[in-house]
From TrEMBL:
Keywords: Acetylation, Actin-binding, Coiled coil, Muscle protein
Family: Belongs to the troponin I family.
A Pfam short name: Troponin
Gene Ontology cellular-component terms listed: troponin complex
Coiled-coil ranges from the UniProt annotation: 27-106
Protein origin, superkingdom: Eukaryota
Function: Troponin I is the inhibitory subunit of troponin, the thin filament regulatory complex which confers calcium-sensitivity to striated muscle actomyosin ATPase activity.
GO molecular function: actin binding
Gene name linked to the record: Tnni2
GO biological process: cardiac muscle contraction; skeletal muscle contraction
Gene3D superfamilies in the record: 1.20.5.350, 6.10.250.180
Subunit structure: Binds to actin and tropomyosin.
Gene source species: Halcyon senegalensis
Protein name, per record: Troponin I, fast skeletal muscle
Length: 182
């Protein structure tokens, strides 16, 4: 018994150790991912947003503003297109989820019906037809002797216990009991 308990404890400890190792691994992976995203963001900004150098003349400033406005418009269009794509994809996902739900609903489990089954049939169903098990329930019943039934009859004839107690109470009742030899 103690050997089995030790084995169980070892298995539990091993499971706990594996869990904590997996959690630690997940934490480091998440940290790596976050660092990679930050690097990617910096690279993107360096490529697409060069450091701003303001020109000296009014004409050059106006040209720069026009360029920036054109870029803002392009980015805005791109953002709008991406949003529309996202909405479309989300709608498709919803539709597919609904289809899946509907399909699941069509194949409901049928309600189980109660079936009257003899003990033999039940055993046959459980053990398969090759096992021939005969359960003669009557053979296991206790034989009832005639004396037992007579005792039960006497008990039935006694009737209501309250009436019985009233009859046996007081001196009269004790006298009756004495004469009856109880």
């Amino acid at each position: 018994s103690s050997h089995l308990q030790k084995k169980r404890r070892a298995a539990t400890a091993r499971r706990q150790h594996l869990k904590s190792a997996m959690l630690q691994l997940a934490v480091t992976e998440i940290e790596k991912e976050a660092a990679a995203k930050e690097v990617e963001k910096q690279n993107y900004l360096a490529e697409h947003c060069p450091p701003l150098s303001l020109p000296g003349s009014m004409q050059e400033l106006q040209d720069l503003c026009k360029k920036l406005h054109a870029k803002i418009e392009a980015v805005d269009e791109e953002r709008y297109d991406t949003e529309v794509k996202l909405q479309k994809t989300n709608k498709e996902l919803e539709d597919l989820s609904q289809k899946l739900f509907d399909l699941r609903g069509k194949f409901k489990r049928p309600p189980l019906r109660r079936v009257r089954m003899s003990a033999d049939a039940m055993l046959r169903a459980l053990l398969g037809s090759k096992h021939k098990v005969c359960m003669d329930l009557r053979a296991n019943l206790k034989q009832v002797k005639k004396e037992d039934t007579e005792k039960e009859k006497d008990l039935r004839d006694v009737g209501d216990w309250r009436k019985n107690i009233e009859e046996k109470s007081g001196m009269e009742g004790r006298k009756k009991m004495f004469e009856a030899g109880e």
